[in-house]
Amino acid sequence: MREELILVKPNESLKNQYLDMINEWKNHEEDIIPWSLNFDSSNFSLMIKKLEGYSKGEGLENGFVESSTYWMINKSNRIIGAIDIRHRLNDHLLFRGGHIGYGIRPSERKKGYATMMLSLALEVCRTMGISKVLITCAKDNIGSVKTIVNNGGILNSEGTDGGEYFQRYWVDLK
Q: How many domains does the chain have?
């Protein structure tokens, strides 16, 4: 039987779990994804408020859109990964970025967690009234490609951005 996993909004009670996840990522010396995990967490309460504000469109930097961040946790409150849902697309996100960005902490990869997290996030999108979801990923990120396809993603197009080849997938939630 699969482990019970849920999406939760970032909150103070998960501070130690969050910092543990971020430290694990840093120890692997790789980019931390999604972008919301790169916020300064030295004042954890302020970081949580910033994330809450972004979901309401408050404090957005130029070119950014409203987005909701969720952490996927197990029954022990271990944060397995994080996912950002952008409420709408601007021109930049329509080209590269899409509605959803996500990442699984290094020690929990290749266990099916990304597929589960994306599935849970697509349900959130459905409740938000987003009927067609754009997800992009690097063409050579086979794990992400499989995650998107396993959740109904249909390849729409490919492109390049800064020398990197990427793919654009649409998931129809109707």
A: 1
The span from the CA of 106 to the CA of 32, in Å, is 10
Is the Cβ–Cβ distance between 92 and 29 less than 8 Å? no
For 29-58, the pLDDT digits (tens) are 988 889 899 899 999 999 999 999 999 999
Under a CB-based contact definition with an 8 Å cutoff, are residues 87 and 101 in contact?
A: no
CATH number of domain containing 71: 3.40.630.30
- Give the closest residue to 117 by CA, choosing from 15, 34, 43, 20: 34
User: Residue 147 falls within a domain, yes or no?
Assistant: no
Domain range spanning residue 47? 6-131
DSSP string, 63-78: T---EEEEEEE-TT--
What Rg, from alpha-carbon coordinates, does the chain have? 15
Rounded Cα distance between 112 and 146, Å, is 10
Is the confidence at residue 170, as pLDDT, over 80? yes
pLDDT given at position 2: 61
Q: What is the pTM of this model?
A: 0.94
Query: What distance in Å separates the CA atoms of residue 77 and residue 6, rounded to the nearest whole number?
Result: 10
